[in-house]
Each structure stands twice: as C-alpha cells, then as structure tokens.
Amino acid sequence: MTDMLPPCPECSSSFTYQADALLACPECGHEWSPEATGAEVQIRDSVGNPLADGDTVTVIKDLKLKGSSSVIKVGTKVRGIRLVAGDHDIDCKIPGIGQIGLKSQFVKKVTD
C-alpha cells in the first residue's frame, strides 16, 4: 500500500505510511499533512482495490443500521457510489433502505 502514498519530502524515502491524519516516514521520522503536499490518499476497499466515484461494490458482512431494525445483508450490491471525506467515506443509495454512508472497509469492489 506504500506505492500509493507520496515519498517523504525530507529524505525521499518510499516507505511512507499513514498515521491518523498525517503521513510519516520511518527512516527520518518526518511527519506531514497530505494536504500540505497536495497528495491525496486513495480510498480502498476491504481487499485493497482502489475505489472511484461511480463504482459498484458489494457488502462483505451484515451491517446493522443504527436506530433501526434493518440490516444490510452480505452480498448486497451497491451501484454508483460517491466517495466523500470522513469516517464513512462512501455515500450511496441502497434499494429498500435509501441514502446511506458506508465505510470502505466493509465493501469489495465489483470487477467487470
């Protein structure tokens, strides 16, 4: 996953990693904000596939909806996702449920 992150601006190391909201370099110890360099962290699904607006994904585990007795079942196909910033980084519309935010760690990209 380090191949999608920018190299360290101090020592040019390619071994950068994300630590909370910052990027960090294990070789020189430099920490910086991805926004400061113009770099954008790629949103990935549960198996590491990069996601983009308009993709189709499937839910990989049953998800209980807070404040409701409804459940999004494993295998539910969600079409036309929209990526957003935040904890729930996917906005989508699920038939029978409506507009909802999902976490990318609970979906898998459908490849054609």
UniProtKB/TrEMBL annotation:
Protein YjdM N-terminal domain segment(s): 5-33
Pfam families cross-referenced by the UniProt entry: YjdM (PF03831), Zn_Ribbon_YjdM (PF08274)
InterPro entries for the chain: YjdM (IPR004624), YjdM_C (IPR013988), YjdM_N (IPR013987)
Q: Which domain of life is it from?
A: Bacteria
| Start and end residues of each Protein YjdM C-terminal domain | 43-110
Q: What does the UniProt keyword field contain?
A: Hydrolase
Q: Which GO terms describe its molecular function?
A: phosphonoacetate hydrolase activity
Instruction: Kindly report, in one word, the top-level EC class recorded for this enzyme.
Output: hydrolase
Does Hydrolase appear among the keywords? yes
- In short, the EC number is 3.11.1.2
SUPFAM superfamilies in the record, alphabetically?
Prokaryotic SH3-related domain (SSF82057), Zinc beta-ribbon (SSF57783)
What PANTHER family does the database record attribute to this sequence? PROTEIN YJDM, PROTEIN YJDM-RELATED
By sequence similarity, the record places it as follows: Belongs to the YjdM family.
Q: What is this protein called?
A: Alkylphosphonate uptake protein, phnA
